[in-house]
Write a structure and sequence with these properties.
By secondary structure, this protein is mainly β. The chain is 6% helix and 41% strand.
Length: 202
């Protein structure tokens, strides 16, 4: 989490930090059944406020999955909606607890068992998605900032209590980064090229 020292990560079920067959160094290995990682506040481990107060943002990750699944979301209750959601074929920003301020941007799925660099950006007005260094979708208009939820943030799966079908990543997530600003297309391409040229594993 770029520049953030207020959050910690907890691995659940058989989720593991792997050092083999990753894109850059080590990665989060997920079995597609019940594995997930939880991002939570250090000061209060029952909540996550990582997206709260952001007026622009970027979520970036290398993803390899043979099944459609969640990359990151803080939707983990049947009655409380997410503020941010990124999966293998869509990106959502929600400005309120409900659907009235919810905007979803779809893109071509990356759930094909190969490594892909997925980047979702919001500049305070428009949402975009980039895949493997290139534009993939957008703009989608969203003027509302992510609403200030305290729900835990999940990586690689949707929490079982979220009232939606299970959508677990079967594979791995590497280099997950969250920025409180919208990266430019040039910066995204540079990050993609850095990953392509990185040494696999440790």
């Amino acid at each position: 989490i770029s520049g953030n020292t207020a959050s910690s990560v907890l691995l659940q079920s058989n989720a593991a930090y792997d050092s083999l067959a990753c894109k850059v160094g080590g990665c989060l290995s997920l079995d597609g059944v019940d594995d997930t990682a939880i991002i939570r506040d250090v000061a209060n481990t029952t909540q996550s406020t990582i997206f709260n107060g952001m007026t622009s943002l970027t979520v970036s990750a290398w993803v390899k999955s043979s099944t459609p699944g969640i990359i990151i979301t803080n939707h983990n209750s049947g009655s409380v909606w997410e503020s941010v959601w990124l999966d293998t074929s869509s990106f959502t920003i929600n400005g309120a607890n409900g659907t009235g301020s919810r905007v979803t941007l779809a893109y071509a799925t990356v759930a094909n068992g190969a490594w892909h660099h997925v980047v979702a950006t919001w500049n305070g007005a428009q949402m975009y998605v980039y895949v493997d260094g290139a534009w993939a979708a957008g703009p989608a208009t969203q003027a509302a900032a992510p609403w200030a939820t305290t729900q835990l943030t999940y990586v690689g799966a949707l929490h079982a209590g979220a009232g939606a079908p299970p959508t677990e990543i079967t594979g791995a997530i590497d280099e997950l980064q969250i920025y409180p600003r919208a990266l430019s297309a040039e910066q995204i391409l540079q990050n993609y090229n850095d990953g392509i040229n990185a040494t696999v594993g440790l």
